[in-house]
Amino acid sequence: MKKALVLGGFVLAAMAASPVLAADINVKLGVLNDRSGVYADLSGEGSVVAARMAVDDFKAVDKGIKVEIISADHQNKPDIASNIARQWYDTDGVDAILDVPTSSAALAVAEITAKAGRVFINSGAASTDLTGAQCQPTTIHWTYDTAALANGTGKAVTEAGGKKWFFLTADYAFGHALERDTTKVVVANGGEVVGSVNVPFPATDFSSFLLQAQGSGANVIGLANAGGDTVNAIKQAAEFGITQAGQQLAALLMFVTDVHALGTQTAQGLNLTEAFYWDQNDATRAWSARFEKLHGSKPTMVQAGVYSGTMHYLRAIEAVGSTDSKKVIASMKANGFDDPLFGKGYVRGDGRAIHDMYLFEVKKPSESTGEWDLYKQISVIKGEDAFLPMMPQCDFTK
Amino acid sequence: MMALTKNQALEPAKQPSSIGMPLLHKVIFLVLLAFLLVLPFMVYPVFAMKVMCFALFAAAFNLLLGFGGLLSFGHAAYFGGASYIAAQAAKVWGFTPELAVLSGTLAAAVLGLVIGALSIRRQGIYFAMVTLAFAQMVYFFALQSDFTGGEDGIQSVPRGDLFGLVSLQDNISLYFFVLVITFGGILMLYRIVHSPFGQVLKAIRENEPRAISLGYQVNRYKLMVFTLSATFAGLAGATKSQVFQLASLTDVHWSMSGEVVLMTLLGGMGTIFGPLVGAAFIVSMQNYLATFGAWVTIIQGFAFVIGVLLFREGIIGVIARIIKRPL
User: Fold this and answer.
1) Within 13 Å and on the Cβ side, how many CA atoms surround B230?
2) A35/B41 touch (CB, cutoff 8 Å), yes or no
3) What is d(CA A298, CA A258) in angstroms, rounded to the nearest whole number?
4) Chain A CB contacts of B244 below 8 Å
């Protein structure tokens, strides 16, 4: 009852309530992601763990910043995400929402965040629309997007000699976008696309499409799909011995947890782009070991992105001495970041975090020394090359 | 006809005021209305609006299943289809909210008429499968066509001004807009069920050959109830798109068709108030248990199993049996 009474003036109340003294700032973070469905492994509880680690590593308590973390399951449904986000902002006084995989849910949360005047640091969603067609001044898109994946995999594989591409494309908007973006990159780097086939979504049987790809004379088979489709396609490609026969597989959206689930026997030779891999350097190894102790598995790039984004957000709060979203976001965009997981980077005016991306190849079983020893790094894609250029109307720093 | 009405009219015969509602129902509706008037000040209004939209959806579905005896497994098509049309109308065509809702509802009615005309030719499981097949076609249309935005859905639908005058930006004013629509819709459904048309429906449900032998054009009644049910499901979906300012694949996915079956069965199939309780129950569970993560679906499944094992008539069905009055 009491909560409802203040509802009308919640924005004012929230702003008035945020203390000016740096000695005592209360921050409430909401980790909103999939905790029961297909993305639960790559985001889920692991993202909450990552956020908590960021708060600990930041030593928030010593700096007089009291951080509370709450979490919820949006079940990959935009209406549930929207409902929770509204409630968090309106009645629970959440300052920032983190993670949010599934593009439709992320876009809904971005819109609500802008209206409520809070902060949305997305790590889990792939849509370039978050900092493109539907950009918002309060959105920060941290880890990756489809353009970066297409750019990374498309460019690096073509440069490495994979000139002739054949696409297996999931027959819906996302698949077509991925194929279109990658085709551009392949052609721009001197490659050619010898053919493509639209696969009904979702699909379980890829055999005829794979045979078509095999007979096309292409040396790279691009998988413009996601999730279960990608996993199925890779499994069946392994049965057909496609990589052993000399063709390369390039997955355009895949996470380390997917590769872990498939195993190196099935996924070997696969090319993919990620923003983070646990076994890159001493810092990532040390952090990932701590993460594994708490969560039981190695972190994905999405979870690492939650850590990195939360860190940068807390630093901005410390710098401006309040949780005022305008000031905090301005500070996040004005100051670059340099953390153990994502290295040096910065947040662009449209909210796109710019950092390096990496092209990996999945190891052969003989090369892998452990359950999580899955990738070898092929090349680094500079942040400036990986992400789409900023749309002028989305530059909110002006 | 005579034999039938005698049979059917056993209950109403006890209450001479068969034109109006029985007193008990009147009281329940009034209490419900009073409760709904203060609800937005007790719980979060957007959540309350969601419950009401799903209550109307479940009530519309119940008209078909509970009173028409037809199990459709494709009601998401009308719910979601209408939400897409209403979202498109409000966002792209610049309609005011009431016109957007109306256009979504009309689209659902047309869709229901076409799909209904084709699927009522079959009965039982085949009927359910045909409706599911059509719903999947609608799903793929939503997935593939341009205006629906694929898996992103139609986002950031403006809330607009009611009749071009009253702003619905505020949650509370939107709440009362939704309240009028859903409460009105449920009252209309009540009226349909208790009309002569509704009585014929029940007769068909109980014994179709007998209804045919009495001279009723059974298929016309079936088509009519199918279309009505689709229309009200559409009204619910269109309203929901205005509340959440988005239309997405969730609304047309087959699991939505399953969810509404769950709500209706849990609340009490063939009762007036059952679907409302079922919807409130399921939506609250999804909302308040969201923090438990993976447990939501498990708890939901558990509740359903308990429901099926212990009270097959649903929550309201059991209460109705105990107090020996139809609810």
Assistant:
1) 30
2) no
3) 12
4) 78-79, 82-83, 108
Instruction: At A119, give phi and psi (nearest 5°).
Output: -125, 140
Size of interface A-B (CB pairs under 8 A): 112
Residue B144 contacts A, CB cutoff 8 Å: yes
Name the residue of chain B whose CA is nearest to A45's CA.
Answer: B293
Same structural domain, A100 and A28: yes
Q: Same domain, yes or no, for A254 and A307?
A: no
Q: Is residue B269 part of a domain?
A: no
Domain that holds residue A154: 147-274+357-385
In a domain, A161, yes or no: yes
A239-255 average pLDDT score: 88
Bridge partners, residue A72, by sequence = A32
- Residue A12 is assigned to a structural domain of this protein: no
Which letter does DSSP use for residue B65 in this model? I
Q: Which residues pair with A169 in a beta bridge?
A: A198, A224
Range of the domain at B151: 44-253
Chain-chain contact of B156 with A134 (C-beta, under 8 angstroms): yes
Residues contacting residue B323 through CB under 8 Å, at least 6 positions apart = none
Is A217 among the domain residues?
Answer: yes
CATH code of the domain in which A372 resides: 3.40.50.2300
pTM: 0.82
Give yes or no: residues A330 and A375 share one domain: no
**Residue B311 falls within a domain, yes or no?**
no
A144 φ, ψ (degrees, to nearest 5): -155, 170
Check whether residue A330 and residue A216 sit in a common domain: no
pLDDT for residue B55: 96
- DSSP assignment string, A177-220: HHHHHHHHHHHHTT-EEEEEEEEPSS-S--HHHHHHHHTTT-SE
ipTM of this complex prediction, to 2 decimal places: 0.76
- A394 lies in a domain? no
| pLDDT tens figures, B149-176 | 877 888 888 888 888 888 888 889 999 9
Rounded to the nearest angstrom, the minimum Cα separation between B70 and chain A is 28
C-alpha distances in Å from residue B27, one per residue of B30, B171, B327: 5, 28, 11
